[in-house]
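Researcher: Here's the sequence for the chain we discussed earlier.
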Amino acid sequence: MAACSEACTHPVLVAGASGERGKHVKPFTPEKAKEIIMSLQQPAVFFNMASDWPARHWTANHISELLPSKQIRFRMGLKSRDTVPQFETACSYVEATLEEFLTWNADQPRISGPFRDYDHSKFWAYADYKYLISLFEDRADVFQDVIWSDFGFPGRNGQESTLWIGSLGAHTPCHLDSYGCNLVFQVQGRKRWHLFPPEDTPFLYPTRIPYEESSVFSKVNVVNPDLQRFPQFQKAQRHVVTLCPGQVLFVPRHWWHYVESIDPVSVSINSWIELEEDHLARVEEAITRMLVCALKTAENPHNTSAWLNPTEVEETSHEVNCHYLNGAVSAFFDHYRTSKVGEIQVVGTHGENLRKDELSMNSPMEVKDTHSQSVTMGTTTQGAASPFGPHLVPVTPNSEELSSERRDVFESNGRGFVCKDEELFPKPSCTRRQLMIKQRDNAVEESIASNSTTAPPSVFISTDDLLDCVVNPQVTRMVAQLLIQGKKI
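Model: Thanks. This is the structure I predict for it:
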């Protein structure tokens, strides 16, 4: 994505812009922006949509002045390039003010205070997942500085937003979010995003340990992968973009992402947008929570810190988790009883919509794909105009990182991908969903073949090994569908 990657040119205000909000003409109306967000199936960067937001001036120094004595929790990580992901369970934590963080980040000698044990040349600090409604509980006026209504979500502002402040190297390990899609406004500094599409999930080696509701982590350190241990990762289709101040990144549902601060200080504000698919996702997450807590607590009831992400307050009892699951299933049906939707729409494993009468024991992959309104792979459906242009730039795969295997199988014909191997794909062209299914099946077959030839006579299966299979996103999706089918109206 060269248009807004390394160059990071300053946003060019369109006609009429003068720094005053009322005179700034947006390239997209709120209605059009929302239409794009709700249909687009690939990441993209919006330009000139937030250039006049008051939050544009929320630098770390400015926020420090707004919160002079506020104690904020910083995650401390090592500036290393190990092949093992630096999960939050492996980090240490510091309670400090933003002023203390900025002093430490200036790399002053003989520093005192909460950061004194952390050499600035060896560690990074990250105040991540900070909900503005908690940070600014006594300053409700600042919520209006964040104006998500410009993207078609009336009334949505800082109250539904999260703040991220980090030093050079601060990052979140590669993961996908179970709920919603994501809008990210870059305020200060730059962040590099490594993104992978949902169909690459088998190549990302998903795990639910450490456990955090709504986050599925990858076992792979995507910036320094161990390809001997995770050979399938070579097939993953990496999309990289450097997000610069004033730009807004759209991350579609279930896209994997690894995010790293590449400037001395970075500040971001994001909001997760709720989607129709979240009702089923909550059932899946309730199933996952029940299984993870039951198995991991039974394995070691006194050491939850080894598997429970610090963002989770505590593990819950089986009784509480059962209640949570029942509540999620009930909420699913309540939503469709009271909504204007005439029939229950359940989303299949790869994003296709399944009607209530299609919830069967058959593989969800066999159901006809009805998600025809989406914009995918930088193209649009027939008859629809592309939304891309100078104010909306798609994040595209890195051509130099496209694996040789993918190049051999696919070639672009200007309309989409055409399959070159007629023996594997008898039809002259394939839909994107068919390609996803084939990639998934190939990954499973190769994994089985690899294990059958290299596994020693005696193999130890750990609780985590079992959980990686039982709470694999594809498995929990099918379990949730079966549960709903058994309790359907």
